[in-house]
């Protein structure tokens, strides 16, 4: 099994931390920076039964103030419609206009996993329930996985879920 995966989300939600954690702790990295005709590859994780190819979504803009941003976002939309799986990352307990701008670009015809990062900052797990209801109302997510990228918590659960969609 092998598939292309895009990690998206507004700045500062922890996308880079998550990617570094996912590929950084594994020895079997083929390449950290590579280019295919269709994608810029930011990391490859190779396991015994699966290969996860992470790709960049360059030019991503969360402001929609002008035509240039809209044009750049069309490029992002193209990338998201060309991967096998999208990981949409948000911060636990925070869902703002910039997150919602990303939601508008998510593809409706392929799997999108909602990754709720920074769960280590939560006071209680129960606090996630109303938050999850609010976020899920805006998009039909394939799965929801709470993680702490920084602490490496539940990231294996995320890979397990992602593997189903390769
Ligand atoms: P990106 O802009 O989405 O790529 O976000 P970064 O990976 O650069 O992370 C933004 C900030 O959030 C950094 O200061 C990270 O250390 C911090 N961060 C990322 N993941 C976590 C997490 O799971 N818990 C906490 N507490 N901080 C995190
Ligand atoms: Mg980053």
TrEMBL record:
Residue ranges of the region described as G3: 56-59
Region (G2): 35-39
Region of interest called G1, as start-end residue ranges on this chain: 9-16
UniProt entry keywords in alphabetical sequence: Cell membrane, Cytoplasm, GTP-binding, Membrane, Nucleotide-binding, Ribosome biogenesis, RNA-binding, rRNA-binding
Region annotation G5: where it falls in the sequence: 147-149
Region (G4): 117-120
Entry binding sites for GTP: 9-16, 56-60, 117-120
One Gene Ontology biological process: ribosomal small subunit assembly
Entry's Gene Ontology molecular function annotations: GTP binding; GTPase activity; ribosomal small subunit binding; small ribosomal subunit rRNA binding
GO cellular component annotations of the record: cytosol; plasma membrane
Subcellular location(s) per record: Cytoplasm; Cell membrane
Top-rank taxon: Bacteria
Membrane topology term: Peripheral membrane protein
Domain Era-type G: 1-166
Family (UniProt): Belongs to the TRAFAC class TrmE-Era-EngA-EngB-Septin-like GTPase superfamily. Era GTPase family.
Assembly, per entry: Monomer.
Record function comment: An essential GTPase that binds both GDP and GTP, with rapid nucleotide exchange. Plays a role in 16S rRNA processing and 30S ribosomal subunit biogenesis and possibly also in cell cycle regulation and energy metabolism.
Protein name: GTPase Era
Originating species: Azonexus fungiphilus
Gene of this entry: era
Residues of the full protein shown: 5 to 170 of 294
């Amino acid at each position: 099994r092998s598939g292309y995966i895009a990690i998206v989300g507004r700045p500062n939600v922890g996308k880079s931390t998550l990617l570094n954690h996912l590929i950084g702790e594994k020895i079997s990295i083929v390449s950290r920076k590579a280019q295919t005709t269709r994608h810029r590859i930011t990391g490859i994780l190779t396991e015994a039964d699966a290969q996860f190819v992470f790709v960049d979504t360059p030019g991503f803009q969360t402001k929609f103030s002008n035509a240039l941003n809209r044009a750049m976002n069309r490029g992002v939309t193209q990338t998201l419609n060309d991967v096998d799986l999208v990981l949409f990352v948000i911060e636990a307990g925070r869902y703002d206009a910039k997150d919602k701008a990303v939601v508008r670009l998510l593809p409706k015809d392929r799997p999108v996993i909602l990754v709720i990062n920074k769960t280590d900052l939560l006071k209680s797990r129960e606090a996630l329930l109303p938050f999850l209801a609010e976020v899920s109302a805006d998009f039909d997510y394939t799965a929801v996985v709470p993680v702490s990228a920084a602490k490496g918590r539940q990231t294996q659960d995320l890979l397990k879920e992602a593997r189903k969609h390769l």
